[in-house]
Structure formats: C-alpha cells, structure tokens
Amino acid sequence: MSKIVHVVTVKFKPEVSDEIRQEALRDVCDLKNDIPQIISASAGKNFTDRSKGYEYAWVIELKTKEDLSIYLDHSAHLEFIRKYKPLFADVLAIDYEA
C-alpha cells in the first residue's frame, strides 16, 4: 500500500528563539490531533553539516494525494502557517509517493 510523504525543511530567521523553534516542532506534530488524514508526524533539528543551512525538518505521512490536499487546506494547518511562516528565512517542501 502506498502513502504520501510530505517533507518540509526550514531555516528560521536568526532572531527566533530556541524556545519558539521547539514550539513550532511540537505544534506541527500536534497537527495529527486535528487532521485525521495524517498517518504520522515527526519533526526534529538537523545534527549534521549536510543541510545547507536548513536547521529543522518535519515529515507528515498521509494515505492519498487527496489527503495531502485536505491537509494543506485544513484550518489547523493554515493556522500553523499563519503563525510560523513569518519566522522562517526559507522553506523547502517536497511531496512524494512511497
């Protein structure tokens, strides 16, 4: 059975505190509580020197491409974006079928 994997990597603006960065990771994982289409959610801080400056990443797994659309348009996800996107210096998102 295939699934959809949504991967996001971010660079926070330098002035964003570590506390806020950790809050963002908790909040993105907590989206699973509000969006039933999410199979799993994980997030963490990079620990290698291969990330080209991207410091944090999260992975959201869903069942179908339609579920990805529902996730992206869900009010809980849109609220997360509204709250945290202004704090990002850069974002890279990739979606693939596994």
TrEMBL record:
The organism's place on the tree of life at top rank: Eukaryota
InterPro entries cross-referenced by the UniProt entry: Dabb (IPR013097), Dimeric_a/b-barrel (IPR011008), HS1/DABB1-like (IPR044662)
Residue ranges occupied by any Stress-response A/B barrel domain in the UniProt entry: 4-96
UniProt xrefs under PROSITE patterns: S_R_A_B_BARREL
One Pfam family this sequence matches: Dabb
Oligomeric and partner information: Homodimer.
Protein name: Stress-response A/B barrel domain-containing protein
Organism of provenance: Rhizopus delemar
